[in-house]
Specification:
This protein folds into two domains: 234 residues, no CATH class; 202 residues, no CATH class. The protein has 21 helices and no strands. Helix 3 crosses helix 4 and helix 13 runs antiparallel to helix 15. The chain is globular, with a radius of gyration of 24 Å. About 2% of the residues have low confidence.
Length: 535
């Protein structure tokens, strides 16, 4: 790969990360608005469908495009033309067949899925959701081809456009439900329609870029023979094995929600809880999902900006430099995760009141917030392992954590209700974290990942932030809790100032070395703080 292509690849990875961050923030915001408009019951109904729709989105956005881009890059490096007969048709045939089978499986098992979810009214919605998988092959094809040519803008812009259409459609549907124009169960239909419209809009963006840039693609020096056999085995293995496992590595939190969708309400009802009460409890529990998602993504994205500089080849050639990148990514992720968990744990009553207009579930969700640390650090660790070539293994670890979540839900929800579901999430993500960290140590036995962390600096920064937040809370919380706009100002101010204090103390006490700070975004600003007089 030339230096120019490497530069384009790194910039493209950063562009995709930014697009992913923007989309996740949109996702968190619209779900909060949805709950405000339709209440916890409406939120529960949406969350019952969201994991299925999210899986389709991940397959179309991350999994199969990654596999197709790998095949595309390989063919172009050989100087081959991407022909309809030799490339497009077999790829579409393989992906199309797989997704038709998957859609059929979901469609015909909808009664069973609805029974598992504890609500037969979901049968038609699950059947409708199956249609979302039918547009995945075409979306994945055009994203993958353009990524294989190092053109990341089409994927990034199509992702943002897709999310904007989805957000607007869902909010519009929720608003009509709140006015009484539609019934509550229309939320499910709206969610599927929003996903389909978003997918179609993404396809339109991708097609525009494809036809605009088709003449700027890498020139081929030779065309393959028309009689050359299509490498079906290679295509099937790359598309299905690599594609599915690559997608799974982006589905950690989705799998947690999928387990909750089919175990939470049924286990509560089996324990004697009334159906409406069980659904409301599920809706309250789901309040934590947008917060976990957005904090995890923000926390991990800063560290993940370093990941494009990591690869197995670079590890062999520039081991010391790559080890520094890995240590920095892990240290930053741990600092952000712990700071976010501590801060959010303290101010969660105000956050709950601000976002959801009451304090329901504050205790249970405070426990769930602990999973932010596990999810953030495990996502960073998994991404490092993927960069070192261990994609299948990290997917297996995620599958194990999913099974732990299902089994834990079945045992703990009847015993402890919503607290049980929170414990199950924390436990399953802890298992995932343990597995990926053990694998990271096995892969890099000579790297002191955690011994090199300045725990003293982390402790001082954490205590400083906690004292500050508790003082501010004791002074202002009682005055702002029942005036929403004042509460918004208070939460924003205390969040930003608390995070700023945490970062300031962390840098002043030497939490990161100068070499590590130089790797981070906005390093010049951070270095000015670091080079000041130590505390």
């Amino acid at each position: 790969m030339s230096d120019n292509e490497t530069s384009r690849l790194v910039k493209g990875a950063l562009l995709l990360s930014i697009a992913g961050l923007i989309s996740k923030v949109f996702s968190a915001v619209y779900r909060i608005v949805l709950q405000n408009l339709t209440g916890d019951i409406g939120f529960y109904m949406y969350q019952q469908l969201y994991p299925l729709l999210g899986i389709a989105t991940m397959l179309a956005l991350y999994g199969f495009p990654s596999a197709i881009s790998s095949l595309t890059a390989t063919e172009l490096e050989k100087g081959n033309i991407l022909s309809w007969k030799g490339f497009y048709r077999p790829v579409l045939l393989i992906l199309g067949s797989f997704h038709i089978l998957l859609a059929a499986l979901i469609y015909f098992s909808a009664p069973l899925l609805a029974q598992l979810a504890g609500d037969e009214d979901f049968i038609e919605m699950y059947q409708l959701a199956a249609a979302m998988f039918l547009i995945v092959p075409v979306l994945a094809l055009f994203r993958g081809i353009q990524q294989g040519r190092y053109e990341m803008a089409p994927t990034a812009l199509s992702q943002i456009g897709e999310q904007l259409i989805r957000v607007c459609t869902i909010i519009a549907g929720a608003w009509l439900v709140s006015l009484g124009v539609f019934q509550m169960y229309t939320i499910g239909t709206t969610a599927v329609l929003a996903s389909l419209l978003g997918g179609i809009s993404a396809l339109a963006v991708l097609l525009c870029f494809y036809y605009k840039n088709r003449n700027n693609a890498h020139p081929a020096v030779q065309a393959p023979s028309t009689e050359e056999a299509i490498p079906w085995e290679k295509y099937v293995k790359t598309l299905l094995l690599f594609g599915i496992t690559a997608a799974m590595n982006h589905m950690t939190l989705l799998f947690m929600q999928l387990a909750d969708a089919f175990t939470f309400v049924p286990k509560l009802m089996a324990d004697g809880v009334e159906e409406i009460a069980a659904k409301e409890m599920k809706g309250v529990f789901d309040r934590g999902q947008p917060l976990i998602q957005v904090v995890t993504i923000i926390g991990s994205s800063i560290a993940l900006a370093i990941i494009p500089a990591i690869s197995y080849q670079k590890l062999k050639e520039q081991r010391r430099q790559v080890m520094n990148y890995i240590q920095t990514a892990m240290h930053v992720g741990i600092f952000i995760a712990i700071g976010a968990v501590l801060g959010l744990f303290i101010i969660f009553p105000e956050v709950n009141q601000l976002l959801y207009k009451n304090l329901q579930g504050t205790g249970e969700l405070r426990l769930l917030i602990l999973s932010i640390a596990m999810s953030t650090i495990s996502i960073i660790s998994s991404s490092i392992l993927q960069s070192l070539g261990m994609i299948v293994r990290t997917a297996v670890f995620i599958g194990i954590s999913f099974m732990v979540k299902v089994c834990s839900n079945l045992i703990l929800i009847p015993l402890y209700g919503v607290y049980g579901a929170s414990i199950a999430t924390v436990l399953s993500l802890s298992v995932l974290l343990l597995l990926v960290v053990m694998e990271l140590y096995r892969k890099l036995p000579d790297m002191p990942l955690y011994r090199s962390i300045s725990w003293k600096s982390l402790a001082i920064a954490s205590v400083s932030m906690i004292i500050y937040l508790l003082i501010m809370q004791s002074i202002f919380s009682g005055f702002v809790m029942h005036i929403r706009w004042l509460l918004l100002v208070y939460v924003l101010f205390i969040s930003v100032s608390g995070a700023g204090l945490f970062l300031f103390v962390l840098l002043k006490t030497g939490g990161l070395t100068e070499a590590q700070i130089r790797i981070l975004p906005k390093s010049a600003f951070l270095l000015r703080i670091y080079r000041g007089k130590r505390l």
